[in-house]
Design a protein that fits this description.
Number of strands: 5
Strand content: 5-15%
Protein name: CRAL-TRIO domain-containing protein
InterPro entries: CRAL-TRIO_dom, CRAL-TRIO_dom_sf, CRAL/TRIO_N_dom_sf
Shape: globular
Radius of gyration: 18 Å
Structural class: alpha/beta
Distance between the termini: 24 Å
Strand order of the largest sheet: 1-2-3-4-5
Length: about 240
């Protein structure tokens, strides 16, 4: 780590202290994510970090959202956890045709956190480092108008950007129907430039082949050109890991 980088980290830690909080329980890889998300500005990174700590304490008091709090969302069988990509990222697949706009928004938000936490936890070897990333796939095949949920999609991205900075390695959107193009244009206005750059809309054979290579045939389901079966999120049992929050 160069001196300038080290200095920014020190400045961020001092700023967090001035804001009445502490970085003692967190390693540099966690703090660096917030720095990168705020263009290496220590004060802005500190504010974002403290805001995340407060949110986490109030929204996720147990440290995780148990299955029992998001039963309806899990029963829809729309989220699948496939294993680890070639780059070492856990792969989440969302089947949008199994999703319907939530009547219970607080529960949907809990589901988003449950989902992101579990996917990231599945990429932890023994102890959380703090810089683990995930790869996402949104499958829009068989999508009907009744499944379209711009609000839900925006909520997911906003949570990612505000509370999971630099956790997304790449997001592939596959099988996009023509009517979803205008929805995506509207949703993408809520995305930060750094997030938008990680989104790949797979629209031709070359992109599809690259997508298969990036994720890995061994964990990608057959319907996407791989060799695996879909594995529902709730069917994945993770061993206990030492978390940093």
């Amino acid at each position: 780590m160069d001196q300038n980088h080290q200095l920014k980290l020190t400045q961020m830690k001092n700023s967090v202290q001035k804001l009445g909080s502490s970085t003692d329980s967190y390693g540099n890889p966690t703090l660096e994510r917030f720095l990168i998300a705020r263009s290496m500005d220590p004060n802005k990174a500190a504010k974002m970090f403290v805001s995340w700590q407060k949110w986490r304490a109030s929204f996720v008091p147990l440290g995780f959202i148990p299955d029992s709090q998001v039963v309806d969302q899990l029963e829809a069988k729309k989220a699948f956890l496939q294993g680890i990509s070639k780059d070492g990222c856990p792969v989440l697949i969302i089947k949008a045709s199994n999703h319907y706009p939530a009547k219970d928004q607080p529960q949907f938000k809990k589901f988003v956190v449950h989902l992101l936490d579990k996917v990231l936890a599945s990429g932890i070897k023994v102890k959380e480092v703090g810089n683990e990333k995930m790869m996402g796939v949104i499958d829009l095949s068989n999508l009907g108008y009744k499944n379209v949920d711009a609000r839900g999609l925006i909520t997911g991205f906003q949570f990612l950007q505000a509370y999971y900075p630099e956790r997304l390695a790449k997001l592939y959107i596959v099988n996009m129907p023509w009517f979803f193009v205008s929805v995506w244009k509207m949703v993408s206005r809520f995305l930060e430039k750094a997030t938008l750059e990680k989104v790949v809309i797979v629209s031709n054979e070359e992109e599809k082949n690259q997508f298969i290579r990036d994720v890995g045939e061994d964990i990608l389901p057959e319907e996407f050109g791989g060799q695996a079966k879909l594995v529902a999120l709730q069917d994945v049992i993770l061993p206990p890991v030492e978390r940093i929050d």
